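Lab notebook page, bench 4
Experiment: in silico fold of construct C2
Operator: M.H.
Input chain length: 279 residues
Purpose: comparison with the prior construct
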Amino acid sequence: MLHFIQTAWLLARLQLRSLLLSRRMLLCVLLAIAPVVIAWFAGAHEDATETVPILGLFMVLQVVAPLISLTLGSSVVTEEIESRTITYIFTRATDRAAFFLGRLAASSAVSACLLALSAGGVVWASTTTRSGSANMKRDWSQGRPPVMVEIVRDLPDGLANGLVAAAALAAIMYTLISAGLGVFFKRAMILALAYTFAIEGFMANIPGSTQKMSVQFYLRGLLTSAYDKSSSLLTEIPGLAETQLYSVPESIARLGAAYVLLLVIGALGIRRREYLMTS
């Protein structure tokens, strides 16, 4: 067991260094910054209670989190296969499961940090008080001509923490999905993108119990934890209307159970699979 932990720790450090010095890291940083920039400009015209949930749900969790996680997750196994270095590693006295878990841990840590910072940046950009007239917006509901009202910068208690937690969990889950597919398939990145944006995107947004088969369903439970069920937020955001979401502890527990199952499948799979390099 001690040798297993030492091997996993060594490979995690090597993977962390490799990721931080890679071009894909630059791409992931740019992806993480994108929601923050949009939130900054949107926050100049909209209340934070509108900007943060919309950007958090539809951009951070559904677009940026999968893209960053799948990009970093593909480096766990697929990168070694494509560069033909996996045979060098597996012909040595290296535990394959330790190889998988160590590299996965490093990739998951990087993706979780990037997504947590991105989500926190969206909250910061939306709630930061601007100078002068930048804190005012036109309110068309008060009659004509429209009157200028102050932009609301405060968020419900728990919304910011819920978004950051949901983003970090999304990173961890999608990184494992990408890495796990890399154990069994050569075109893991393509399959991961197809699953995330086609299959899961469909399941997460159709009415009924099918939503519970998607990661996004449980992330929404964390995002909306700050709101009472009677809040208009749940009826204004498409995909959340008339959806019975789980509580935060239950959402985390179910995601945790799914994570452990996928992790065991990936670790056992990499121990048993033979990797043949074709010319």
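Observations: The CA atoms of residues 232 and 241 lie 9 Å apart. The two ends are 37 Å apart (CA to CA).
Next step: discuss at group meeting.
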